[in-house]
Design a protein that fits this description.
The protein is an alpha+beta fold and 998 residues long. The protein contains 28 helices and 23 strands. Strands 3, 4, 5, 6, 7, 8, 9 and 10 form an 8-stranded mixed beta sheet that branches. The protein has a 6-stranded mixed β-barrel with strand order 14-15-21-18-20-19. Strands 2-11-1-12 form a 4-stranded antiparallel beta sheet, covered by helices on one side. The longest helix has 84 residues.
Amino acid sequence: MAFVKDMLRMWAHSWKRFISIAMITLLGVAVLTGIYAGCRDAFRSTDRFFDAQGLHDVQVLSTAGLSNGDIAALRKVNGVAKVQAERSQEVTFDLDGRKSATMQEIGTNGIDQPYLQEGRMPKKAGEIAVTRKFIRDSGKRIGSRLTVIPESASSDTSDTNDTNGADGTNETNGTDEAPSFPTKLTIVGVVLDPQNLSNPDGYSAMTSFRSTATTDYTFFAPSDGVTGTLYTSATLLVKGAAAESTFDESYENTVKQVTDRIDGTVKTDRQKARRQELLDAGNKKIADARAEADKKFADAQSQIDANRQQFNQQVDQIVSMQAGAAAAGAAANGANAGAAAAAGATTPQLDETTRETMRETIIAASPELTQAKQQLDQAQSQLNEQKASTEQTLKTKENELKTSIPQVRWYVQDRQSLGGFSALKSDLDSIQSLGNAFPIVFLLVAVMMSLTAMARMVEEDRSLIGTYVGLGYGRLAVASRYLLFALLACLIGGGLGLIAGFLGIPAFLLVVLQGMYVMPGLRLEYDWLYGSLGIALFVVGVLAATIYACVQEMRQTPASLLRPKAPRAGSRILLERIRPVWNRIGFLGKVTARNIFRFKSRLIMTVGGVAGCTALIVCGLAINDTVADLGIKQYRDIYQYDLMVVSDDSDASAMRTKVASDGRVTSSLDVRIESGDLTVAGSGDGDSGKAGSSGSESIQLVAVPEKHLSDLGEMVTLQPVSSGILGTSGVGKTGSLKLDDDGVIVAQSAASALGVKAGSKVRLTNGDGVQATAKVSAVNRNLIGSDVYVSETYYAKLFDSKDAKNTKNSKSSEDSEALTWNAMLAKLSGSDTSQTDYAESLEEDSSVMKAVSCAHMADSFKFDLMGAVVALIVALAGGLALVVLFTLANTNVSERVREMATLKVLGFFDREVHHYVNREMMILTVMGVILGLPLGRLVGGMLTMALNMPSLYFEVEVKPLSYVIAAVATMAFALLVQLFVNPVLDRIDPISSLKSVE
């Protein structure tokens, strides 16, 4: 019992060490669990929401639409739980200019169900539910009415629309019709689209640079009033996928098994079957047209024949009358009247030649008959020409049918293709990667500080330990005094850290997340396993340091422990050997120098602890500076153009005419811009970037006219980059990179994420879904977006040749049509504000699909989530620095109590004692800061390597002000600690302190 009482008394006396260890553990566990828990809560709530709303696992799209046969084939695929055929239609309406929306049918099979936020779900034809973004932008409310115009209204409605990839001849077959929705609409509800969780009321504008939406809004309508049996897409739920977390690799593997089956079996067969349906439909239309034409021609020919027969009868009557009159006259001049009577009673018989001659004579003599004959001949000639022309047209259609209907292509996509899903996942993954890295530094600092504190605690009890061992107490029992002390401090600090980690930090992160995304049903959850492991990690580290300190002392005999520890032998330091400097240092300065460099353990611990904390602060500020400069570097440095305008292919000429007529452009470059994909398959042979690398990235494929390849450098800064050590990159000279016909130039933001480098082979997918293997000629410096630049010639070589392989009747590269330059990069005159206003005005023009102002993008680019996490990390790092300095300062004082007592006996005033002690701590702090500043830059660069986010590359940037802030903050913490240490120095009693050894 006395042993226990003494142990408790010792614990109470060492309360400062207890608080230090507990605080370090609290901060470490909070960092380790807090960011993880916040991301995990967001992941879990989003996964529950997706399961509740039936967000599709797989989506199948086709360039020719999907038929009932396609849907039936998908239902038969092994592993498919549900299939929902979906119909949609793009419409336009007037909302302060031309706006577009997608009319989406609400599925009846429980897939992709919108989440009701206000009002009710639409049930009748003409009722719709809209998103909150539309309510905010339009100012409308529930009950408001809206009239929309289908985008295909100006074209033949019987043709398959452009989104299905068909041209004028690719009409649906006789039983399939394109979807059609009511145009007179009434808003009855406000919903959340599960495919896009962006918060329109928050600060989610930062995600606009990676938005994949093709229309401005989505309207949800019931099946009532929707016509058409041709489906826009098919959405699938996979068996067993709902039981997995949608963000885990196990979910991806489950879904991949089904997508592989679709790609391997159904896809090829149904692509062929669908194209044959289109061919049969085309042939049927041609056959129907021929039959109808033949019937019309037959009727016309019958009419002409009847008219000609009637005409001939009239002429024959006249011929007969004239022949009879001639015969009667001849008989009257004869010998007897009987012969005349007989001749008059009979019609003379005329041979055919005579009769035909008489017909021609009669017709020529009569203007009316001549005109009638000409009309009949003309009608017959026109009919013959029409028959020949129609037959030729039909034969041409038959010959062109196979080439005019392209190969049908299916696109099998998973949730990763959803822009909202991938944006949320990448944001949370990047934050979680930071949460996995920073606790390592906290753990190292915790072990160092625990070793310092516990080593001093054991050393102070040296004689007591010798006494207990001499009395027969086991070394383990004696060591348990300190092990239990450290364990209790870790458990209490870890427990408080769990509260902060699973409640405080997640609550803060989720507030920031909810400003970016809408996540219904979000709640905080505790992870017993992760929380326990988090505490255990710090317990093991601190106990290991404590055991090491105990072993160092207890390996001595009790007699040695009962004697005071021999003072360190005097020795010279390096500075003493530099006589010109040493001789000019005062007495106290020499004492300070010896104290700093002779006690190397104190030097290492203090400098290392301060350097680690400073490095954390610099690292956090470095990430903040890097993110803050992304927009400026990309849109003002890399992009030299001021405006990018994109139009539909059919409006390209009108768009260029519009921009040219405005007179704002000082120079421009016509290009073709398509949305595509860049894929790298794991190989390990070095030809595909990093060995074993794999993945896919959405890209913006930019084709440049052959005659203007050199002009690209005037619109975009072309700088080659190469990989360096520790993930760094080297940037080449501006203008040293040229686009040619030997390969493509890939943006650094895509190349870094996929491990692509110059000379790699990648698979490109263009806007039409055609895939081709391309060579990467260079990697260009690029921070935001994933641009891939390709020359006109190399584009034709890649994709036209690919078509030739897939389609026997496709055109060759030489015969292919020239590319349509559907976009323009332009430099503008005027201020940034006027350029932004001009881009907004262009978007209201019907020929412009998208107009982007670089000035506006540079000013509006934000990454609030990363900024919030950085602020949290900097605050925790500052707290750690304060605790570390407090621990080191108190340890320093406890080690030198006799020295301080001696100074007081020698007549030093309290202020002089303060200055004597604090000067050493300040010098050590400065040394730690000097070491921590470059260390923080290095750690910041390594951490940004882990932030591989879609369409983003973090080029590490640390502003001088950040170094100043980190240094000043650390020094300020050191000064603050002095305020706590000075009273301790004042309370040192010289008499009792100098007698303590006896």
